[in-house]
Amino acid sequence: VEGVDAALQRLQTDYVDLVFAHRPDIYTPIEETVRAFNHVINQGKALYWGTSEWSAAQIMEAYAVARREHLIPPQMEQPQYNMFHRERVEAEYAHLYDEIGLGTTIWSPLSSGLLTGKYNQGMPEGTRATLAGYEWLRSRFEDEEAVQRIAQVGELMNIADELGITVAQLALAWTLKNPHISTTITGASKPQQIIENMKALDVVAQLTDDVMEKIEKILGNKPPAPQSFR
């Protein structure tokens, strides 16, 4: 609760539309977390609350506690989601969308810049992977899996070229094509990148079934449909 107060002070506002429980706190009972966010909303400091990188089981537990205790349940989850990171959003959370109306605000839609294509010819100076303190990112782009993914980005660039767009716009539009994605968080280091990213909204309509099939053939990582025991 004190963290929300401090955030509102820094933002110079009285309330926010949505506040997230950033990562599950394994040392705090979920009921206590639910009650804390219920208090924040009742105090008028937020309209809704959500989770960030919680498991499906943890989200369902929070939802069940809220319903049992007549409290406000989480409405949104903030997971990582992109062409290379799909399992949680497409499989683990699959039953939550219909069962509790879960929405998602996804982060890292460009896989730390990998899906922009800028790392296909090495690491350009000035990019995050070349900066001090980002050695962890640089090492990620140099392992065997990254080499394979960079090759896949090269193939995705061919599809983007056919559509007359950038591969970054293709990757962003791909996330928005998923009906369970409510919001896509993008990052930018230059104003022009924001403008280019926003154009992805116009690209969604270009992602026909045929285009999506071509993308799936390149990625080859579509999670299997979750089993239903009903």
Provide structural commentary.
With 230 residues, this protein is of the alpha/beta class. It has a domain at 111-179 and 190-223. It contains eleven helices and five strands. It has helices at 2-11, 30-42, 56-68, 87-92, 94-99, 135-140, 144-163, 167-177, 191-198, 200-203, 209-219; strands at residues 16-22, 46-52, 76-78, 103-106, 183-184. A five-stranded parallel β-sheet has the order 1-2-3-4-5, with helices on one face. Helix 2 (30-42) links the parallel strand 1 (16-22) and strand 2. Helix 2 (30-42) packs across helix 3 and helix 7 (144-163) runs antiparallel to helix 11 (209-219). The chain is globular. The model has no long low-confidence stretch (mean pLDDT 93).
- Helices, by number, come to 11
- The overall pLDDT average reads 93
**In order across it, which strands form the biggest sheet?**
1-2-3-4-5
Strand residues, percent: 5-15%
Name the structural class: alpha/beta
Spans of at least 5 consecutive residues with low confidence: none
Distance between the termini: 40 Å
DSSP summary, beta strand count: 5
Q: Give me the Rg, rounded.
A: 20 Å
Largest sheet geometry: 5 strands, parallel
Helix content: 40-55%
